[in-house]
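Supplementary notes for students who missed Thursday's class. We covered one full example, reproduced here. Read the sequence, then the structure, then the short commentary at the end.
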Amino acid sequence: MENKTVIITGAASGIGKATAVLFAKQGASIVISDIHEDEGRATTENIVASGGKATFFKTDVTRPEDLESLINFTLKKYNRLDIAVNNAGISGELNTIADMSIEGWQKVIAVNLNSIFYGMKFQIPAMLKSGGGSIVNISSILGAVGFAGSAAYTAAKHGVIGLTQTAALEYSSQNIRVNSVGPGFIDTPLLNVLDVEMKNQLASLHPIGRLGQSEEVAELIYWLSCDKSSFVTGSYYPIDGGYLAR
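Structure (token representation):
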């Protein structure tokens, strides 16, 4: 990862943070992108204090102009973009379809799906100028199956896989690989709204018998981003403790 520049959205906590830390340890220059400025700057400072290279750029991924500014900032600072991890996401409103608010639907689609399109729209031209690159879009196990009460989240994550496959078809011949990762239920701040009993119930849905850890997902993202996966594009990789094998 030496001399590689990496953008990671939603990198202030959870999977994004773990991924940023891992990439930095391998020598990459990281642009930490998140809407939560205090947590994002703290993550950046921790990486720098550990000898890594990182900088923070506040981004609302629902705003295409913010994602364009993120790319411009990255190119101005590092003069290239090699890897992008489109990770920002929310769980959003949990409700049945008939009872889900229009606003709740729109917010989840904006954060979890529209942002992937906006990100790639500006990341791809920057990567082409750099001679190619790798994009990893974070989907979910719910990109492959349904889940009652999470219509917007499930629809968005299905859409991420379709966008990923399409981008791979369009740009693989130009040395840009695009893949998606489908985490199961991971023990991140997104689950902090749940009590212990609910967390245990979610853990029991995985044949492996526990929730996943952010660092485990980061390892898969790293592999998909580096040259060891040079023949991999347009793929969807679940990392789910056996959830989808049930």
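Commentary. The chain has one domain: 5-240. The radius of gyration is 17 Å. If anything here is unclear, bring it to office hours.
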